[in-house]
Design goal:
By secondary structure, the chain is mostly helical. It has 2 domains: 76 residues, no CATH class; 121 residues, no CATH class. The protein is built from 8 helices and 5 strands. A hairpin with a 2-residue loop joins strand 2 and strand 3. The longest helix is centred in the first third of the chain and has 39 residues.
Length: 259
Amino acid sequence: MRVRSLLILWLLVSISLFAQVETKIRNEIRAANDELIEIYGFQVRYNLTILTGQGHEQPAAIDDNGMYQIFLYTSNFRDGVARHELAHVYFFEYLRKKGSSPETIPLWYHELIAEGFQNLRSRSGRPPLRSGFFDFTVSIKNYPPEKDRSVFYGAVESFAGFLLSRFDYENLLHLVDEFSSSGDMNSSFKAIFGSSLDNLIIKWRVLFLLPYSPFLVGVVIFLYLLIGRRERYWRQFPLDPLNPESLKRGESGEIDQKS
C-alpha cells in the first residue's frame, strides 16, 4: 500500500513538472514567433510536438513540404532552445521564398542564424576555451563529431554574439542574398559587414581570448621561471664531454683513467 502511494505521488509530481515545462516551451515559442514575424514579414505554419524524452534526445525542426514539424523534449529543455528551433524554421521558409535550397547555405551559417536569434533574448554561459580556437567554418555540410559538438556550438554562439553586438540581426539575412549572388562567404561578409569573414573571425578570437589573458600570461611566467630554475640547477654540474662513469678527476685537475 505504501509503495502504491509513493508511485502515485511520483506520477503526480512528474505530470506536474511536465505541465510546467510544457507551458514554458509554448510561451517561449509564442513570443519567438511574434518576433520572427516582425523580422521576416511573414508567418510560417508549424506543428509543435512536446515529448518527455530520456534526456539525450536532440530537438529538431523538419520541413514537411511547407508544414514544419518541431520536436522538443522536456527532459533536457533549457531557455532559448525553442527560440533556436523556430529560428531554423523561419530561415528555411525565407530560403524557400527566395527560391534557394537550405543545402546551398553552409551548415555553420544555419546555426549562426539560429544561435543569433536565440541569444537576442537569452545567453548561455561562457563557451569552453577551446571554442576560441575551433574552426567552425569547416562544417559546411555535416556537423562535427559528437565530441566536438559543444565546442562547435560554443564557437558559433560566441561569434554570433560578436556580430550582433555591432550589427542588426537583419544583416545576417542580407548576407544570404549577397552569398546567393557571389557564392563566396569572404566577399559577402565584406559587402555586408565591411570586413571579410576571415578578418572578423580574427577580431572575434582576440576579444574571446582577452578575458583569459591574465591566466595565459600567468602560465607563460610560470613556465619561464620553471625552466630558469632547472637551468640554474644543472649549471652547478661541470659538463664533461667524456663518460663520467669511466673517468675521474684528480686533485691536480688532470683527468686520469680509472683502473
